[in-house]
Amino acid sequence: MPASQSRSEPSPPAPAGGRRQRSDARRNRDRLVEAARRALSSGEGAFSLEGVAREAGVGIGTLYRNFGNREQLVEAVYAAEVENLTARAAELARRMPPREALRAWLIQFAAFAATKRGVVEVLGFEAITGPGPMNHTGSLERVTAAITPLLEAGARDGSLRADVDPQDVVMLVAGALMPVRTDAAQTERLLNLVLDALRPA
Fold first, then answer.
1. 3.40.50.1970, 1.10.3720.10, 1.10.357.10, 3.40.50.1000: which CATH number matches 70-201?
2. What pLDDT does residue 17 have?
3. What letter does residue 158 receive in the DSSP assignment?
4. Who has the most CB within 10 Å: 29, 115, 163, 195?
């Protein structure tokens, strides 16, 4: 028998439909997380899984295939927001001078604060103070680590104070934005005050 016939036939390629289904499932999950984020940050009323599914353009069954309950969905939103916030600090530091990068990052932090406020409204304060995945101590450490290089770069070029603790900056911004919902104008004023506090003497 020729050698070419003695070898086993190669396996057929995986059907494109399988890849397409996985891609569609991922897009559905991303749409659900984004719709839930908008609902949490809006402050416009009760957080409804049916409303999130409708806003994402999927059925409630699709939501439950991705998230077994409301807590799992909210945890996914919170994890995505922390990831976006920390990644954004490095991205802005590469593209902008430090003080401008800090201003842009603070705007991102304001959006995160609105989402976190929604998390507390939906799940209670214990959601961020308890031992679960949304514990604020862990997110504070990650956010502080992300902003530290940006503040250090500002200290080196003289655009930001060199005598501040990065964690103090994060807590200052959180303290200004977390307690109550603010409109765009008030948020901008508060962020300007934070930036003024970080201006070198």
1. 1.10.357.10
2. 52
3. T
4. 115
Distances from the Cα of 174 to the Cαs of 24, 94, 114, 124, in angstroms? 36, 24, 10, 18
CA distance 103 to 95: 13
Q: Where are the beta strands (DSSP E) in the chain?
A: none
Low-confidence ranges of the chain (pLDDT < 70): 1-21, 44-45
Joined together, the tokens standing for residue 26 give: 């991922």
Q: Which pLDDT does position 14 carry in this prediction? A: 43
Q: How far apart are the first and last CA of the chain?
A: 88
Q: Fold for 17-68, please state it.
A: Arc Repressor Mutant, subunit A (1.10.10)
Token pair 């200004």 in the structure block, residue: 176
- Find, among 171, 174, 144, 152, the residue nearest to 99 by Cα: 152
- Domain map (residue ranges) of the chain: 17-68, 70-201
